[in-house]
């Protein structure tokens, strides 16, 4: 058995995939889950050979007990401020108390290092926690993967299949990083068992513009897609403010205005990455948008 890796958020989509990836590398996987987690989810993890510990995620001392002997703690926690800040602080503090040498926070997002603070609620929480991590006596690595490519055919309104249009705001040539959750999980697992990784790593399965998407989607579907400019970035800013005012939904993880904030950040070009770290693990077969859409078409 290889290194012991502890993961929080193992019952989520990304967390579950990281668990599976770790197991393929013969890691000894432990999972911290909430005390109220459904029994079937706990059983599913245990059936894979994962050691599951149900506990109060906010109890640093309990967390430390479970972290003892781990080589790396991986956070795949997702939620509102209580989870992203408070629960992750308890997780990090517990790891430090247990003398765990390495920590991977739940970033897994656009590279927000050059975004304007206070303009994207969910990313602001992650930025706040990143500051806390920077001050902690532990070797930490955060992974920026752009947007999840999986959302192209679900919640991300870039490809308007019904109208055969690619939506964009202001700039049809701005590049956007997209990575499948499967590829992110494979990479995160490799980072977790690595002996030495930098503070930040940036990856992308593909980097495309709205103009690129037009050609890719047209080829993948065999149907000609066009472009639809929804307006300027300043107009999108106004729409975000109006939507948030009339439909705040502050206790919702992804209210409509939050999705618009992500869209604005991508279309502004502030999250563009100049150099990626995909090559660090050369055996990972990165999924392009064309390949992803081909897979989706095969399933439908």
Automatic annotation (TrEMBL):
<dbReference type="InterPro" id="IPR051609">
    <property type="entry name" value="NmrA/Isoflavone_reductase-like"/>
</dbReference>
<dbReference type="InterPro" id="IPR008030">
    <property type="entry name" value="NmrA-like"/>
</dbReference>
<keyword id="KW-0521">NADP</keyword>
<dbReference type="GO" id="GO:0016491">
    <property type="term" value="F:oxidoreductase activity"/>
</dbReference>
<dbReference type="InterPro" id="IPR036291">
    <property type="entry name" value="NAD(P)-bd_dom_sf"/>
</dbReference>
<feature type="domain" description="NmrA-like">
    <location>
        <begin position="2"/>
        <end position="226"/>
    </location>
</feature>
<protein>
    <submittedName>
        <fullName>NmrA family protein</fullName>
    </submittedName>
</protein>
<keyword id="KW-0560">Oxidoreductase</keyword>
<dbReference type="Pfam" id="PF05368">
    <property type="entry name" value="NmrA"/>
</dbReference>
